Structure formats: structure tokens, C-alpha cells
Amino acid sequence: MAVHKFILDDTFHEALYTLIAIHCRLEDYRLAYLLNKYLGTELKRKPSDLDFKQGKSSYSIYEWEDERQLIVWSLVSNICKTEEFQQRQYESLFDSKEKIIKTNYLLPEYKTVNYFLKIESEFSFSKEKYIVDSILKIPQIATAYSIDSSQLKSKDNLIFN
Domains in the chain and their CATH numbers? Predict the structure, then answer.
């Protein structure tokens, strides 16, 4: 009997995208507005946020599908703060639960980044540099830079669909 062997190495390719980290203190809607203004995009808030860990953490996401160039732009927050109640470790006269604010990160290896701009297309270095330079022209942004997605440990968190 003949043995048939399928080789799937060449069939599955990693998704090509550019990832830009953005450091700023702006609210997500304000940053989306400024990116639309400076980059000429049309980012709009998606009806539902990204949910991880069975709804324990959610991240706001703005998206624009550029049908002319077949590019999908996504602006997603990296930080999610949630309130949890925890029983106190010590006995007291008034037993009550203590409120704790936990911080979760979309990409834990980049805890200082506030937002990520994911552009689902592979750009040349000059086009990527142009986008980063345009973002840096926004006065409210402290810094922005490209991230090598092949070095990410938690790249599965960047799958939005």
C-alpha cells in the first residue's frame, strides 16, 4: 500500500502587516480623530470591543477598510483596567471587600505602549517611515515607532477577526 504524505509548510504563511506602537495620553476617540486628520484615514469605532479572557478584559478598537488599496487599518488600545473586589486578608470590625484595579495588556511585552496601529499590508520601508513620521507630527503624541512582528511572543492577540 502506498503512503501519501502532505507537506503543508508552504501553504500557511504568516499574515503580512505593519505594527506601529504609539505612546500618548489621549483618549482613544481623540487619537482616532487625529490619525484620520494627519494620515487621511477613516478610522471608526467597531460596534464591539476586543474581548479576552472570557470578557474579563476588553480593548477598544477602531477600524477602516481601504477598499481602493485593499488595506485594513486597525487602531487598538493596549491597556485595559478592570475593577475587582477581593476579600481582605485580615479580620476587621467591618468585613468588606477591597476594590482592586487590575491592569491587563494586549501585548504584555510592550507595557509602556498605549495604542497599536496595525496596517494589514506589507509596506516598503520608505512608506512605513512616512507613516511613522506623519504620526510623530501630531503634537499630542510622545513617540511612535515600528515593531518587528516576528519578535512578538503574544502575536495571536493581534488577530482581530
Answer: 18-79+105-154 (3.30.310)
